[in-house]
Amino acid sequence: MTFGGLALPESLTVFSIDGLTAFRAMPDGPERGVVLFVPGFTGSKEDHRFLVDLAAHRGWEAYSYSQRGQADSIAPHGIDEYSLDTLAADAVAVAERIAGGRPVHLVGHSLGGLVARAAAILRPSVFADLTMLCSGPGGQGPEHHRDDAAFVARHGTLTWWEHNNPLGARNEDEVFVRERAAASSDDNFLALAAILRDTPDTGDALRDTRLAVLVAHGDADDAWPIADQLAMARRVGARYEIIPNAGHLPNIDNPEYTTELLDGFWSQQPGPQDPSTNHKGES
Length: 283
Description:
single chain; 283 residues; alpha/beta; 8-stranded mixed β-sheet; 11 helices; globular
């Protein structure tokens, strides 16, 4: 099974939820619950292809979707169509559609973590817990992605990708990422870049939901300051884990370990822990 030249696990099926394209993998054996992955900036459902497959093999009914304006999902015109509130409402709508009365284990990667957190705050009753994967407490400051956004506003997302990859696409993954950039919305890029700059810290509101929270990142994550992720975990009373042999994309770099970690979190429904404790994977 392929999409845009990218090889995908055979367990995945493709469908659409109100114009948002999604992957689904049904569980091997008895079903243990339902999980939903939210991709980050310039991402899509394919970013979680390995986690969806591996989670299904562990008994979870697993889904990932492309946010509006990403890849082959709907792409309404106008930057206002991509506000954090709108993206969070999309995440809630997808979760409600797949839940079948079950609480949904929600995982957001990078900017997807900000979306997932906003969704959990918006409708906590829909969710069993929240994982912030390589994500942070809020925006990273007024200069973050400002130059990239200015470039995209002038030239478009595809030209931005080509500018940053002067050798072109050299393997099937890079071919896919180039095609995804070509298909994705410039308005999505500009709005999400602003979310990454300006989103306030809503840790208090998240803690008030009383949802169990996991904060996890790769041991070499260079996109979100690791100190900020640790501080966020402490503030919200979250479990904190470091994923070995991974950068900002543990879902790609080390999906087996990441799935094992998530499986344990979903299964145990842990309460607040002291994130300064030395957890598995932390040096």
